[in-house]
Q: What sequence folds into this?
């Protein structure tokens, strides 16, 4: 389990721009996908606006030196059929050297507390079938649903 003296978990806001940029690097490394997370970085203004948007939540885990070692980014999805919201965890990653220490669980618990505060009733996350560690983590925290996921391309406007 995470020792409070080792990691600090917190929600990032516009004032935490440097931590958000570090988290993009964590995602790039953990997912082995620098093209997505580092090749075309958003401007400072864009990230500040995003971090202060109520429907976007990023939580980061910082080590004792204040370096981001993990994090998650989630979206608040307001429902139309009922006056309630869901939280969708879009990305969650922890650097390899910090895994198996409760960091991801702490990140999810922090998001759960935020969800309670904003009146969300559930949070959900997707995992690739080949990602056994992620599946094992999520299985300890929630119920598994087997669904199919489809990406539908949107034509680029020229």
A:
């Amino acid at each position: 389990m995470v020792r409070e003296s080792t990691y600090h978990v917190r929600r990032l806001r516009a004032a935490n721009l440097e931590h958000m940029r570090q988290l993009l690097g964590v995602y790039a490394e953990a997912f082995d996908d620098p093209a997505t997370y580092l090749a075309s970085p958003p401007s400072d203004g864009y990230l500040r606006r995003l971090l202060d948007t109520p429907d976007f939540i990023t939580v980061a885990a910082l080590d004792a030196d204040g370096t981001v070692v993990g994090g998650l980014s989630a979206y608040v999805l307001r429902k139309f059929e009922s006056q309630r919201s869901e939280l969708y965890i879009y990305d969650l990653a922890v650097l390899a050297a910090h895994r198996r220490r409760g960091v991801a669980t702490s990140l999810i618990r922090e998001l759960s507390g935020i969800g309670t505060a904003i009146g969300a009733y559930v949070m959900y996350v997707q995992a690739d079938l080949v990602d056994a560690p992620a599946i094992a983590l999520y299985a300890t925290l929630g119920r598994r649903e087997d669904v199919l996921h489809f990406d539908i391309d949107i034509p680029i406007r020229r």
Summary: The chain has one domain: 8-141. DSSP finds five helices and five strands in the chain. The CA atoms of residues 15 and 48 lie 7 Å apart.
